[in-house]
């Protein structure tokens, strides 16, 4: 099928061709909820796609819960979201989606207590829960607690390594006076498909969070991380399937204390989605919240994250320039990047100050700019539904 060439995003989930960018785009229907944040994507075995996020009044409030929308293979629109979770006493956040060995879709997410007087940030009370769907995200079972350690937080999905090991990037939130600066990265590791887990901590990783685990070659892993100090994306290495990790070091990519998403592509390149900004004159060890979460870029590396010579802005936003121009530039944040079985890339992120989730689909060549149609002209044959 050919997707429609319409004027722009519509909140009914219609997928359309952005002729200027050469991409497919849609606004996933927000449903009845006031805000939408922290999306996750998953392609099912039958080619359908799921998008989950947390929705409600505002992050950290007890009415925040997880929802999930579907796009059937061959469809030109995203369906209305269905409720996954609802705990009237906890704020449920940061979902990730994983195809479990039991044939179910696993939704892993955090659940923290509602705000208390004098404490706006309650992430140190978080636990990690799981819910399963056996019908492709249409309905969801009851929640169970997978990691009861208070302060446990997550964002990226469980990764299955080449040796069959499961590794799940976490960080441990503490009740820090200075705004989350003490949060170290830790990994939950299972060698029996989730029946039991061990905890592995990353040394000297305070402030480096949201670990994206990528297996560059068998047994050799990297973790790319958000920085609480709003300076750079950080990287750590493991040569033993995640049993030990190096101290995080800065990469060449800036980070604004906002989430990133990284994966190894079928081509062998490393891809990362991020906001290419940071706080002016960042100081290592000092938490910073620059506010500017625009534009959204995708960068490619051919050397395992040492350099990223290919970068393209996939979301330009309002396009205003100037340091900390948050008055005119909306927020486009928390990107999630995945690659479908057919090689096409799929990107989702919170859109325009969290009024909804934006979905964008494109190719690796679009990022590289190696074909004429990838720099603004659209090739209709590339829009055939997979």
Automatic annotation (TrEMBL):
Q: What are the record keywords, sorted?
A: Glycosidase, Hydrolase
Q: Which Pfam families match?
A: BNR_2 (PF13088)
Sialidase domain span: 47-347
Q: What class of enzyme is it?
A: hydrolase
Gene3D superfamilies xrefs: 2.120.10.10
Keyword hit for Signal: no
Q: What is its EC number?
A: 3.2.1.-
Query: Can you provide one Gene Ontology molecular function annotated for this UniProt record?
Result: hydrolase activity, acting on glycosyl bonds
Show the PANTHER family listed in the entry. BNR/ASP-BOX REPEAT FAMILY PROTEIN, BNR_ASP-BOX REPEAT FAMILY PROTEIN
Protein's UniProt name = Sialidase family protein
Q: Which organism is it from?
A: Ventrimonas faecis
Species classification: Bacteria, Bacillati, Bacillota, Clostridia, Lachnospirales
């Amino acid at each position: 099928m050919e997707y429609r060439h319409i004027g722009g995003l519509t909140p009914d989930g219609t997928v359309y061709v952005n002729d200027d960018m050469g991409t497919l785009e849609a606004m996933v229907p927000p449903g009845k909820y006031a805000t939408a944040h922290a999306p996750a994507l998953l392609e099912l075995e039958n080619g359908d796609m799921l998008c989950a996020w947390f929705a409600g009044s505002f992050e950290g409030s007890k009415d925040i819960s997880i929802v999930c929308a579907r796009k059937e293979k061959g469809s030109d629109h995203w369906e209305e979201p269905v409720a996954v979770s609802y705990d009237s006493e906890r704020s449920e956040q940061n979902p990730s989606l994983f195809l479990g060995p039991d044939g179910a879709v696993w939704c892993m997410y955090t659940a923290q207590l509602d705000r208390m007087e004098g404490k706006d940030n309650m992430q140190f009370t978080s636990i990690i829960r799981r819910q399963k769907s056996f019908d492709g995200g249409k309905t969801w079972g009851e929640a169970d607690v997978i990691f009861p350690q208070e302060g446990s937080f997550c964002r990226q999905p469980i990764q299955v390594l080449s040796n069959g090991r499961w590794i799940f990037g976490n960080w441990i939130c503490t009740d820090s006076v200075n705004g989350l600066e003490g949060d170290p990265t830790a990994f939950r590791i299972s060698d029996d498909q989730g029946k039991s887990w061990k905890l592995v901590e990353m040394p000297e990783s305070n402030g480096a969070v949201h670990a994206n685990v990528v297996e560059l070659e068998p047994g050799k892993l990297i973790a790319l991380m958000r920085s609480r100090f709003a300076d750079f994306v950080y990287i750590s290495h493991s040569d033993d399937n995640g049993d030990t990790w190096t101290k995080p070091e800065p990469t060449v990519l800036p980070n604004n204390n906002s989430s990133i998403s990284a994966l190894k592509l079928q081509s062998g390149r490393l891809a990362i989605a991020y906001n290419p900004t940071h706080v002016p004159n960042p100081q290592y060890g000092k938490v910073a919240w620059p506010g500017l979460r625009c534009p959204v870029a995708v960068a490619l590396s051919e050397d395992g994250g040492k350099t990223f010579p290919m970068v393209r802005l996939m979301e330009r936003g309002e396009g205003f320039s100037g340091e900390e121009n948050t008055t005119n530039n909306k927020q486009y944040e928390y990107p999630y990047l995945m690659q479908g079985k057919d090689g096409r890339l799929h990107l989702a992120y919170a859109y325009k100050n969290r009024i909804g989730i934006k979905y964008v689909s494109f190719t690796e060549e679009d990022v590289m700019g190696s074909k004429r149609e990838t720099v603004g002209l659209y090739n209709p044959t590339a829009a055939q539904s997979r």
